[in-house]
Each structure stands twice: as C-alpha cells, then as structure tokens.
Amino acid sequence: MKSSKVMIVEDEALVAMMVEDMLGDLGCEIAGSFGAVDDALAWLGSGDPTPDGAVLDVNIGGEMVFPVAEALREQGVPFVFATGYGDLPRKGFESIEVIAKPINVGALRKAVDGFQSGEEQDA
Amino acid sequence: MLNLASRDDVGQSDTDLMTLIETIEALSATRTISEVAEVVRKAARKVSGADGIAFVLRDQGQCWYFDEDAIGPLWKGKRFPLTACISGWAMLNRQTVIIPDIYKDDRIPHDAYRPTFVKGLVMTPVRMEDPVAAIGAYWAEEHVPAPEIVKKLQVIARATASALESGRLHDSLVDARHHGTFLLQELDHRVKNTLAIVQSISRQTLRASHSPEAFAEVFENRILALSQAHELLTRRAWGRAQLHDILDKALAPFSTDLTDRFDIVGPAVTFSAETSVSVHMTLHELAVNAAKHGALSTPEGRVVLRWTVDEAATPPMLTLAWREVDGPPVAGKPERRGFGVSMIERGLARDLGGKATLDFTPQGVVYTLRAPLSQRMSLAA
After folding, report:
1. What domains are there in chain B, each with its CATH number?
2. Testing the interface with A: which of B185, B198, B200, B233 to mutate, by most A Cβ within 10 A?
3. What does the pLDDT read at residue A122?
4. Is the CB of residue A56 less than 8 Å from the CB of residue A79?
5. Which of B19, B81, B174, B375 has its CA 20 to 30 A from that of B196?
C-alpha cells in the first residue's frame, strides 16, 4: 500500500509534532503542517499536489478551521477533526469524524485507513 | 339577626383571609414580573373591592404602569416621572397614601386622571424600606376605604416584595448556573488541550530516552516547565504574557541570579496565552541544552539574549537571538535530532509563522528566530 500524504492544521506546536510523529508511525508522509488557517488555505490554493487526507484542529488560535475544511471538500480530499471540544457545533460537517484530544492512536489509524481506501469521509 | 350578621362577618373575613393566603402562595410560585403582576392585580381587586387596580414598577426615575385590572382603562404601559404621579409620591415617601377625592388633592396630576373613571384611591408601596413598585386601588366614587382594606393591600404589597426578591434571586441563580456550565466547558477544553501537550511531551521524550531513569528526569523537568507556563497564564487570567516575565520563570531553574548568567535586552513584547506556552517550552529546551552541553555547563559561560522589532517592515518583524558565549567549545551539530531540538527549531517558529535556526558554532550555540508581529505576538502598548 502506498503511503498517504497527510495535511495537518494545528496551532499548538507540541500537539502538531505529536500528530506528525504518530502519522509517521502509521506509515504516512506529512504533506504539510500548518499553524494558521491562512497558511493552510494559501498552500491548498498554490497548486501543490493535493494531499490524500487531512487532520484538522478546529480552533486555530481563535480562528475556526472551517474555511480549510470547505476547501478540502471542494478538492475532494477526505479529512477528520481533532479537537478538545466535546460537542462543538459543526454545521454542515455533521458527518465528519471527530477525533478527541488527547489523541488515541487507534482512532487516528482508523482515519488514515479511511484516507487510504479513498473512502469519501464526507458522506 | 345580630348572630346571623356576625356569622356573615366571620364568613367574609374567612374568605378574605383565604384570598390573602392563596395570594401569598401564588406569589411565591411566580418566576417573572408578568406572573407577579397577574397575581397582584386580581388579588388586590378582590380583597379591596375597588373598581380598579394598577401595578406600578419603579424604573429608575419613572413610574411604569405595568399592569391593571379595572372597570375602565387606566394608564397601562405608560411611564411618568416619579415626581409627577401619586405612585411616585408613595414610593419616594415610603408610605401608603389615601385620597378620598383626587380633585381636592394637589399631589394628583388632574389632567392625567380626567379621561379615567377614578375619583378616590389608595396607593401603597411595595417593599416599604426601599420601594421597587406600588399597588394602586381606585374607586369611581369619592371613597374612604376601611382600615382593614388598607391593611390587606399592604399585606399583598409585602408578599409582592418577597416575590420580586425571590424572582430576582431565581434569575441570578439561573445566570450563575449558565455561567458555571460555560466555565466548566471551557475548563474541559483547556484541560484536554493541556493533556494533549503532555501526551506529546511524554511520547517524544520516551522516544529519545535510553532508560526509564533518563526518561523520568527529562519528562519531569518538561512537565514542571509546562506547569510554570500555566502558572503565568493563570496569574494573567489566561490573557497575554510578557516576554520578560516568561524569561524570568523559564530560566529561573538554571540560575540563582538571572543577571549572573543571562544578559537580556529587548523591548516589551507580549504573547497570546497559547503561544506563550510554546515560548516557555522553547526557552526551557534551549536552557536545558545549554546546561547539559553548552554555556551553562561551565561556571564562566553566559547567554546573551537580544531581540528587536523592525517596525518599518510590513508586517513588523521580530528578530530574536539566543547566543551562548564563554562556554565550552562546541563540537558541532548533535547526530540525533531529539524532541528538544525539534521544539527549538520548529515549535515557536511554527506558532508565529516565522523561521528559526539553531547553529552549533564553535563559540557556542546560536538560536535565531525571525517572525512577523501578529495577534499572537505584539509589542506591549
């Protein structure tokens, strides 16, 4: 199975480093890791190769990650949310998987398996 | 006849007593001002036998005719200055007023009464010591109410006062409960985020540790640094933290006298709560490395810390340098790139959208950070 290229949007550097580390253990490559919504959007709009999947924190330094989620949806890239907010309202994204923080590696593996099977997460 | 009459009297006063008790019970079950008004206007009319009742609220400098129950329209919904109506007079003077014929009393604004049926009235304040409302009873004929009627109106006014108090108490309890729930949710979020950071530290410290002992030492120091970063945040109510304050806290474990080992010069810069944790952890890792292999591992070594902000740039740019001097000669870049070095090179730069470099020059380690000012990092006002 070829390795997935996964995008990360996470404002806490320490958490981002862990997610990168976990994804590496799961055999993924890091397509790009961003700490700000603007940076993530700029990268997605730059014509770089599209990632195979994305792990998105929801609250990025007080900004909501949803514009990035919209852009990924438009490009047909599957993604999951990773957040410490238990029941954050996600209007329009009710079907998207939410991974709780702290992160369970098993839950992340399931998400990555979803990316690899090319399964449309956004049912 | 006499017996019959007195039995009738007893029957009537029993009925009135029951009305009063029912009124008090009904008032104690009210939760809103409208419910209070509903009970008051009906009960007051029943016990007084008046042709009309008005329930008046004191709203800052005005009397607000909030509700009424009468044979003809009074002033429901209207507001008058406290000084220009009799309910205002009763509230300001903290006393019940009885006016048998309003047209013979100067305190009455006669023009306001002319369109109404009112000829005689009783007005009694609610909460006598500091009135918040008043109950008015009106008669279409000149009328002197019996003293027990006035007394019953005053009983209703007292019950109304306690109903308004408990309604307010209820409102404040509901508010407090909502606020408490919000705080708990926020706390839950922050605890989970912090646990995710602890998870990250433990995982990556474990990866670089040769033994459980080595893990324990490094991990505990990192958790202590994280704890101090939080202490600073809590002290500032999760607001912005000053770089100078973060330096004081983060470097304290490495020198009994900070000025002895650290030469720090830079303008006052503040960080958002989340970013200040990264700043703290980055400084901790730099100091740990310096204490282990660098300038802080010898008595002579020092760290020169300088930062400036180029305000002419768009956006303004911060350049910060941590330069170790007078330490042992540096052999070069370590072969293994551990978590500490990753944190130094990537953590803060990533948070701030800038670039950081870590150079192992023969004279000592040099860490340089260049990052634009933003909401996450700004010059102190």
Report:
1. 2-169 (3.30.450.40), 208-379 (3.30.565.10)
2. B200
3. 44
4. yes
5. B375
Q: For residue B109, which of B133, B134, B85 has the smallest C-alpha distance?
A: B85
* Token pair 């009424």: residue: B68
Measured in whole angstroms, the distance separating CA A22 from the mean position of its chain's CA atoms is: 13
What residues in B contact A14, CB-CB < 8 Å? 197, 200-201, 277-278, 281, 343, 347
* Rounded Cα gap, residues B45 and B51, in angstroms: 7
Predicted local distance difference test score (pLDDT) of residue B123: 96
Tell me phi and psi for residue B165, to 5 degrees.
Answer: -60, -50
Nearest alpha carbon to residue A20 among A72, A55, A63: A55
For B347, which residue in chain A has the nearest alpha carbon? Answer: A13
Residues 6+ apart with CB under 8 A from B52: B45, B68, B69, B70, B71, B72, B74, B117, B118, B137, B138
Distance (Å, rounded) from C-alpha A121 to C-alpha A10? 20
Classified by CATH at the fold level, domain A5-116 comes out as Rossmann fold (3.40.50)
Domain coordinates in residue numbering, chain A: 5-116
Q: Which residue has the tokens 């990773």?
A: A82
**Which of A15, A18, A27 has the alpha carbon at shortest distance from A6?**
A27
Confidence check: pLDDT of A80 > 90: yes
Residue A47 has pLDDT above 80, yes or no: no
Which pLDDT band, with edges at 50, 70 and 90, does B168 fall under? confident
Q: In this complex, how many residue pairs, one in chain A and one in chain B, have their CB atoms less than 8 Å apart? A: 82
**Are residues B326 and B263 in contact, defined by beta-carbon separation less than 8 angstroms?**
no
**Beta carbons within 8 Å of B93's beta carbon, 6+ residues apart:** none
